[in-house]
Amino acid sequence: xxxxxxxxxxxxxxxxxxxxxxxxxxxxxxxxxxxxxxxxxxxxxxxxxxxxxxxxxxxxxxxxxxxxxxxxxxxxxxxxxxxxxxxxxxxxxxxxxxxxxxxxxxxxxxxxxxxxxxxxxxxxxxxxxxxxxxxxxxxxxxxxxxxxxxxxxxxxxxxxxxxxxxxxxxxxxxxxxxxxxxxxxxxxxxxxxxxxxxxxxxxxxxxxxxxxxxxxxxxxxxxxxxxxxxxxxxxxxxxxxxxxxxxxxxxxxxxxxxxxxxxxxxxxxxxxxxxxxxxxxxxxxxxxxxxxxxxxxxxxxxxxxxxxxxxxxxxxxxxxxxxxxxxxxxxxxxxxxxxxxxxxxxxxxxxxxxxxxxxxxxxxxxxxxxxxxxxxxxxxxxxxxxxxxxxxxxxxxxxxxxxxxxxxxxxxxxxxxxxxxxxxxxxxxxxxxxxxxxxxxxxxxxxxxxxxxxxxxxxxxxxxxxxxxxxxxxxxxxxxxxxxxxxxxxxxxxxxxxxxxxxxxxxxxxxxxxxxxxxxxxxxxxxxxxxxxxxxxxxxxxxxxxxxxxxxxxxxxxxxxxxxxxxxxxxxxxxxxxxxxxxxxxxxxxxxxxxxxxxxxxxxxxxxxxxxxxxxxxxxxxxxxxxxxxxxxxxxxxxxxxxxxxxxxxxxxxxxxxxxxxxxxxxxxxxxxxxxxxxxxxxxxxxxxxxxxxxxxxxxxxxxxxxxxxxxxxxxxxxxxxxxxxxxxxxxxxxxxxxxxxxxxxxxxxxxxxxxxxxxxxxxxxxxxxxxxxxxxxxxxxxxxxxxxxxxxxxxxxxxxxxxxxxxxxxxxxxxxxxxxxxxxxxxxxxxxxxxxxxxxxxxxxxxxxxxxxxxxxxxxxxxxxxxxxxxxxxxxxxxxxxxxxxxxxxxxxxxxxxxxxxxxxxxxxxxxxxxxxxxxxxxxxxxxxxxxxxxxxxxxxxxxxxxxxxxxxxxxxxxxxxxxxxxxxxxxxxxxxxxxxxxxxxxxxxxxxxxxxxxxxxxxxxxxxxxxxxxxxxxxxxxxxxxxxxxxxxxxxxxxxxxxxxxxxxxxxxxxxxxxxxxxxxxxxxxxxxxxxxxxxxxxxxxxxxxxxxxxxxxxxxxxxxxxxxxxxxxxxxxxxxxxxxxxxxxxxxxxxxxxxxxxxxxxxxxxxxxxxxxxxxxxxxxxxxxxxxxxxxxxxxxxxxxxxxxxxxxxxxxxxxxxxxxxxxxxxxxxxxxxxxxxxxxxxxxxxxxxxxxxxxxxxxxxxxxxxxxxxxxxxxxxxxxxxxxxxxxxxxxxxxxxxxxxxxxxxxxxxxxxxxxxxxxxxxxxxxxxxxxxxxxxxxxxxxxxxxxxxxxxxxxxxxxxxxxxxxxxxxxxxxxxxxxxxxxxxxxxxxxxxxxx
Length: 1385
Known about the structure:
By secondary structure, the chain is an alpha+beta fold. The strands form 14 sheets. A 4-stranded antiparallel sheet has the order 1-2-3-4, with no helix packed on it. A hairpin with a 5-residue loop joins strand 19 and strand 20 (263-270).
């Protein structure tokens, strides 16, 4: 629920559902107009409670836990419960959902920024965010966390609010309040420290000291457990000048906040008992009072073994509300004892400073005597006073008062009259109130207890009557009899004289336990209802001698509750349990009318019959009240008007004695009062008019005494009616006339005499004490006034003495200032000289070290260039040898292929059927190999991609030498591990290739059994294997060459480490000198401030001396005027004028005579001149020292910038050297990979003659060379591929561009490098786009393409041979046997 800022609208989130429970309950938001106070007092009947707008959230199953209007009231923000925690932004006037967003976190509080209609805040246990609504795209944007993310997850935010319409305050459970302005934290208020500071003095501290002293006297020393645990915050609210924070242990703290976010604690307060936990707080618009909703844990339920409501760690925190399953039948049943006791109180926040001093009542409960905490078990009115008594499962008896029709609009019309603890262990189940309202009868578990109701302190018990299984109790309407049931018996008792009148038992009574007894309205019939299994309702006529039974109804296995009786129609109405049906019963009939409940949620639980009004009120389990027309129709539908009231099932209902108010109580402990508006039709015009209170009383009383309104049949009856109306009018006028001077029964109070005498005695004692205190106060005031006069005289004497001492101190300080300035100037000269010498030495050392490092880097570049040239020469030599060997192999293989093709054509026709099958098998194997090769290639690409990204990141972070070298070393280790993994994978692939070779050998064995002509081809294959040995030797040489290059890399790393160490030492020495310079600056500032203070004191004393000289001159002028020749004529007035002049200049008595004053004035003027010269000299020295300091600081900054520039240059050159080393390593890996590919190709070529004999790889007969067969690799393009080959890192092979050459053009690229450096230092760093081709998908090279073509051809031929009918497995085995046999030969 929330109210708009202008106070005109109210938004309520509610849950609605179908009565039969078939349709799931749904959630909606209703916006209603708030009526004005004048409208409420004028005419309540004309107020319309219809909703202006109804909003339906997208997810109607989740409850609405928070609502808030924007500042101008145009928009409405809502938050749903878990698990979605959806934020909805509504344009409620047009019922339109503008935007929505799911948080999916536990939240519990929503606040709108008072100065911005598009910004709001949401908080939860571990969540605090600002949200913005964008009107352009209608989106909700979540701002970043105002806390560090780790801190926000660990803290527990309990509440937040907006203070002074500017600051956002958030309270955490651990005792801190954080103040934010525009998303940035301004203050962190330690509430626990404020509590400790405020409670260190005052009554709280005294009580703690007294407790410790008492414990020492009792022999128990203080322990750590004696100290109370720290307060845990649970609520936060704003008021006009700051915020109010609440927590457990009854804590309430008021804080003041100014425009600069400075927080001041006004006071710390505790609720009585220090057990309450603040749940929610809200201040009024005038900031006069604050309403506080708090609760206490029920200690009684924990004492007697009932489960505790919550742990302390959970009770002080605000939990997020989870949605129910939106069905009334799925609501959990209320517990027998409520674990929490809720209370509503007010606090004078506008006068918190006075409340902190104890001059005001701090906490004032809204209900002075509290309310019920648990199920309402019984409720009865008094028929002679305006009171209603209730009792509940909290074992308390409460009496409530309600107003008359004239006083209904007055403030505090409904009051709490009395509250008693009925029992400590037994729950009252039934009750009855005497018609006069001064006596109440309660049914406990095993007794009947009757109270005399007086005031709160004087209420007494009349008597206790022990009974066995008591059920119901009722007073007669005249108050002379009391009916009570005990098991199966019903007993009539005189409550005033304590006499048993009659007992209904035996054959004339019930056969099962009686649960309710009632009297008819004329006290003639006593009715009682029994429980199952008998289920009877009996009525006895009390006016007959034998108490005859006049009403009887029996329904086996039925239990009736809430029995009511209409004496005019002689009908009884009761609720049938447990079905929850409403049943109307007549005498000697099983059932007359039965109104069943539509569902379990709409089951009837309580009844109240208003016969004079013709209404029957029925309460349901879902908390609504239904109004039926009475009597109910015997046939047809029963129409009723339903009003939803309670959130829990209604347990009891009753009407006030004037039938104007309907009182109802529920299982949750709530008592509600509804206004029953009675109306009647005018006999003349037929319009409906309102019935006033007196007319309603007349109608009720006449119906109670059996007076039936009948139309007048003749003139005599009409005359009687007129007389009756005149008499009634006279009676009403007399009642109105005496009501102003006399008291009604509502104004009377039954008080015991002893209690009244004690109160009067206390009043007299208080009056005597007040007179005594008055005399004591007058005497104390006189004493205080005399003491104040004495203190003023003493203070004046002290001030004169202090002035004299101050003059002496000034002279001493002036001398000390001169000496201090002289010493300071000498020290500053020495310090500046030493600093200049040290700076020159450091500059010389730095220039020497930089020149040495530059020479070292030049030597390293020359060595690296030499190594690169040697490597290029070796690479070209190996490439030429490789091309020559490939040309020889190509020529030999082309001749072998021509011979093999002729033989293959002869065998092709014989193996045609087997070839298809063999091709299919080879195709399957080839697909598997291709997939494996693709996976390997993809892994290598990913590894190279990761390597390039890490290298780019390392260049971005190259400002710090230590981080750069460490990261590169880690990358080298990772890449070495990946290289080892790649070697392992290649070994596995080699093993798989060997397995495939074995299978090919088996195919050759099969071919050898059929055709011996393949022996010649095997010899050619053996020759090819012999030629392969040259490639093995080439691979061995290349491997050792790469190892030598890696060993030459280690000295470069050692030189880089040495350079790093020297730079670190230079930087540390520079920091030490800079800190020494800062100390000198601080000393200079202290001396400057001291001299300024002394100069200010000197100026002040000079002003005082000048003023004294002026006063002396004025005195001389006044004396000269008095002694002048023109004024000496009237010499009689001269003494009087001189006396006036002396009195005028009385303040100069403390000074010396004028002659001495002149001498002192001469001395002071010379001293002032010397002091002025001294101050001017000090100012000149200060300016000179300041200029020297600026020059020294500028030179130091310039040296530091030069050092940083040189370090950056060295860093970039080292990074480039490392990049070149990585390039060489990548080329090394590329050559190793090429050698392995060539080795694999040669091994595949060894098996080609056997495959030729088997009929594989038939190519185009018109082609020449290797292109004649599609199964053979294309070796002609190897040279071009080698020429155009690109290393794996995606960069071209290095040429003459080296770090030494790049250093020549650094000056031209300085601006671009600085821009890139600024981008790399951003958070998060800017992602640099790389033009390296390795970032993209790499196309396979020519060798890979040849290998793929050969494998595809082999696979196709094998499948073709297998389709022809050849057993390729046997052929492979036979071919391998033949190859082994020829190799042995």
